[in-house]
Amino acid sequence: MNEFLEQFLIESRELIAQATDDLLALEHAPKDAARLDSAFRAFHTLKGAAGIMDFDAMGLVTHATEDVLSTLRAGDRAVTPKLVNNCLACLDQITAWLVAMEESEALPEEADADAAGLIARLIPSPRPEQPAPVPAANPGEPTLPAHAAAILQEQIEVLALPQDEGTPGRTAAAMRVMQNIFTRFGLSAPAAPTEPATEDTARPQRMDMARIETLVNLAGELIVVKNAYGHAVSLAPSPALTKLQAQLDRLTADMLRGVLAARVLPLRHVFQRFPRLVREMAASLDKPVRLVTEGDATEADKRIVETLFEPLLHVLRNAVDHGIEPPGQRAAAGKPSPAIIRLSAARQSDEVVIEIADDGRGIDPAAIRATAAKRNLATPEALAAMPEPELLELIFAPGFSTAGAVTNISGRGVGMDAVRAAITQLGGRVTLHSTLGTGTTIRFHLPFTIMLTRVLTVEAGGQAFGIPFEAVVETQQFNRKDIAAFGAAEAIIWRGKTVPLISLAATLNLPDTPPAGIIHTVIVEHGGEWGAIRVDRFGDQLELMLKPLDGLLSGMQGIAGTALLGDGRVLIVLELNEVLK
Amino acid sequence: MATKILIVDDSKLARMSVSKLLTSLRPDWTRFEAASADEAIILTGREHPDVILLDFNMPGTSGLELAAQLRQSHPHIPVAVISANIQVEIVERAQEAGATFLAKPLTSPALAAFLDEAQARLSVTRPSVR
Amino acid sequence: MSAMRVMIIDDAALVRLYYRDTLERAGWHVEEALNGLEALEKLLRQPVDLLIVDINMPKMDGITFLNTLRRQSGPIAGIPALIISTESAPQDFAAAREAGANFYLVKPIQPDVLLAHVTLLCGAAS
To answer: Is residue A379 domain-resident?
Structure first.
């Protein structure tokens, strides 16, 4: 795609998100001058972007909206839901145009006609004679100052120099400088109990994401250099080299933590999409609901923030659809209207906790028992005896749904099991609390950064593999005679438990030579499945930064990612889900 | 040494668009980009640009404020303020700050005229071109 | 916390005076050396937090100095170094980088530019 079009789409989408956010806030707080300024500025910048692309229709629509907003600023008009709707309709139209442009890579046809209709809706009011000048302060999005970025870039160049006797000294100096810049701009390790940043001023500088990705990749490569250095030292050990190695280890770890801490986004990026969605869901169900978001400046790893949309949407849908009572029921129970759903985020030491709390009807244990019995999730006796927390956990069982009626909001099919799976995949966990009549609270506990993966290396079929360490129960050797055959499958008895024996080489279609005498296995447990993975040899424990699969390996089953080892070999890290199947 | 030009705009798209025009008008010039007034000040101190193009509408320090500051610290650098708000008031304020006003979106003839004028000024204030 | 220490390595007394004045006002502790050799001798006795290095100097120039420094076995090998020189050819930048300089500024430089870079290279004054 043309780089201009690409940048146009990126910037326009950011501006639309900002304007939507501001407009929805104005609906609740019509006198919020800062929000009005921010919305005005977003439309103004959209107009500028349209001008650059020669997109006249979009230029006209944004110009008209800008005029309407300036009458608000002049105090000639008040914010009404209709006005907000009209402005949102413009944003919807622009969004539709952007989608069309992304597909066709050209200006959308018939945009002029669409624009005319929108403008007619916007302009019943007299146009102001002099549009107000540009707003003054805007929170904006400051970036890392240019000179700091230049210095960081130079350190990367220094680290990339060919190796010679000066390498340890140069590396140490470059890393000191990088660490210093990270510390200076608040990008350093999250060790200190930081306040969940309520204001952007708490961390004014945000580096360009592309630069951070470069740094993350370089940090990964630096670990490889460090591992190689360790390998070299082990070949010719000397006290001085060993000491330097320890220093390098420490610095690399610090730097990596710094870089990963920099690869964060405020949760606003995902939160800001929900007020509008909740508003629409609530309207379609005729339930007055207000979504309150808190702590959206809290930061989390970029990958986490980008993956949260689906699970959050699902939980919010459930809250609007099943949690919040119909208005009549609420009134009868003496509960206030509108109902409140609180979406909040906070940093708690190394975790980011996201909470979705509604003040609805709560979950009825009796209803869960009935559904669970109907779906044969447990015997009626077991269900009757089940303590409440355990009972609530059944909601996360695949296919569970307590809704009396299937509505088109939450529909059928995707359950809380999918939400839990998504959060677990990010290294987090989901908890649920509910009080009948008072409401339900769901919490996502997520790691602040996606850190190193600890693996146990093994060899099979002449190749090195990594097994995620959290799944390893122990390494165990057996005699050939300990193997029991069950048809084509084999198993071993380990601590009184029958565990399937899996040949790693055979699973991955590599040449497999079953040993005559002692066999080496790694006992693993993953997602409730057990396995004894037969390998040729055990290796070391390593901490690695996993690279996602690309090129030839992508799409290969059973592989989670790859990492480079100190001696230059590529280590393939296994996805145990697939191996244990 | 090549003539250096600094482009200041918080929108990357706008910088790309100005940059593209410059590539056709002055391919031999060295271009620098800044996304904020603060960055612009630091880059000006470090790179000593010969010409500066400023966006009017930026968060924090606006293009006009920055133009006024630059006039104090670097009176010899020709500065243009680019704005989509074509209002007499803004044009006048740009002139007060010693800057040329250019309408947004920037067109090739408008930019060419400014660059010609800037070069003429540079050859006077800087007789021995580096 | 005690003051951060910067060593200025330049043979021009006026330049040293200018940097010293700028840095001391902002709270840094300043050491001086007239050339690379003198700097190495002083550093081996007492390390600092940042080096400001000129290129053209008698006895031992800045590039040779950095090459030697980075090959030392002790902690002084890893002291960040800022080159400030009148040289501005690409090959000078490249030679400085290869020798292990962490950043390069071309003379003359304004006090605020000096302070901004020194702060990032070795941390705040105290």
So the answer is: no
Residue B130 lies in a domain: no
Q: Which two tokens stand for residue A387?
A: 């303590």
Q: Quote the strand ranges of A436-479, DSSP E.
A: 439-447, 453-460, 463-468, 472-479
- The residues of C whose Cβ lies within 8 A of any Cβ of B are 105, 110, 112-113, 116
Same domain, A282 and A424: yes
Choose among A446, A449, A142, A140: nearest CA to A302: A449
A210 secondary structure, DSSP code: H
The pLDDT score that the predictor gives to residue A406 is 43
What is the interface pTM, i.e. ipTM, of the complex? 0.90
Give CA–CA dist A343/A323, Å, rounded. Answer: 14
Specify the range with the lowest mean pLDDT, choosing from A122-126, A448-452, A541-545, C114-118.
A122-126
Same domain, A474 and A439: no
Structural domain span for residue B110? 4-125
Q: Shortest CB distance from B12 goes to which of A11, A48, A138? A: A11
* Alpha carbons A231 and A162: distance in angstroms, whole number: 18
Burial of B86 (0-12, 13-18, 19+ CB in 10 A): exposed
- Give the strand order in the sheet containing C50-53: C29-33, C5-9, C50-53, C81-85, C103-106
d(Cα A187, Cα A179) in Å, to the nearest integer? 9
Same-domain status, A469 and A531? yes
Task: Count interface pairs B-C at CB distance under 8 A.
Answer: 7
Nearest CA in chain A to B17: A52
pLDDT tens, position by position, A193-222: 223 333 333 333 344 566 666 676 667 667
**What CATH code is carried by the domain that includes residue B102?**
3.40.50.2300
Q: What residue ranges define each of the domains in chain C, with the CATH number in brackets?
A: 5-122 (3.40.50.2300)
Whether residue A240 is found in the same domain as residue A314: no
- Whether A464 and A561 map to the same domain: the answer is yes
- Within 10 angstroms of residue B56's Cβ, the number of other Cβ atoms is 24
Look up residue A167 and give its DSSP letter: H
Residues of C in contact with B46 (CB under 8 A): 105, 113
Task: Inform me whether the C-beta atom of residue A44 falls under 8 Å from chain B C-beta atoms.
Answer: yes
A140 in any annotated domain: no
Q: What is the structure's pLDDT at A221?
A: 65
Q: According to the model, what pLDDT value does residue A135 have?
A: 31
Could you tell me the CA-to-CA distances from B65 to A141, A142, B90 in Å, in that order?
A: 19, 18, 12
Domain limits at A67?
Answer: 3-122
pLDDT confidence of A357, banded at 50, 70, 90?
very high
Mark yes or no for CB contact B42/C113 under 8 Å.
yes
Tens digits of per-residue pLDDT, C45-88? 888 999 999 998 888 899 999 998 998 877 788 899 999 988 88
The percent of residues in chain A predicted with pLDDT above 90, rounded, is 12
